[in-house]
Amino acid sequence: MTSEKRLEDLIDGLSGDLNPVRPLAHPLWRAGVCFVLTAAYLAATVYGLHPRMDWMDKFHELNFLFEMSLAGAVWISALLCAGWLCVPDMRGQEWMKAVPVTLTGIFVLWSVLRGVMDGVSIFPLHWDHCFENGFLMGMVPLALVAFFSRGGTTTHPYWLALMNTLAVGSAGWMGLRLTCSMDDVGHGFLYHFVPFLVLGSLIGVFARRLFRW
After folding, report:
1. Contact 161/207 with Cβ under 8 angstroms?
2. Separation of alpha carbons 160 and 166, rounded Å
3. Does residue 140 carry a pLDDT above 70?
């Protein structure tokens, strides 16, 4: 047997069972599609639930604009990070994780400062319509983002679950701020934050099974 024949047999043995695969979508494309579909769903949901009566006036308030802008920045940066997390080792772009995490930390600090300066009202615990609206705004987008994420090949399933939760949670927070007329920090934490915390905890528990490949 000649050396060329042995080389051909070796190549056949190594690659004979390989099948063509579809290349991964670009992370920016994956994140962009998720952003457009999530934004369209939230816009339709806010319209169906009816915006708060003073929503036009709120867009002239600096605090409201800052909060919405910060939540929007978390949403976009988390979606972009999730897109890159769908690629093995994020193509070396590990720094992207720091952006949404830092922005989320700023958002939490902002909420704490608001609570200190404006006070926090303690209401009797009850089933509020914001719970229902929060799950309505969160479940479908989270399922959508998780579906697109499953098409990737992540090597960081828990980070991907966290980014999906931050993206959907911040977008849903914006939706609730546009439909709920309560501006109190205590109400916002309990009734606007908890639904997305529950959804995020669920996806985190099943992250390794959900995003395996």
Report:
1. yes
2. 10
3. yes
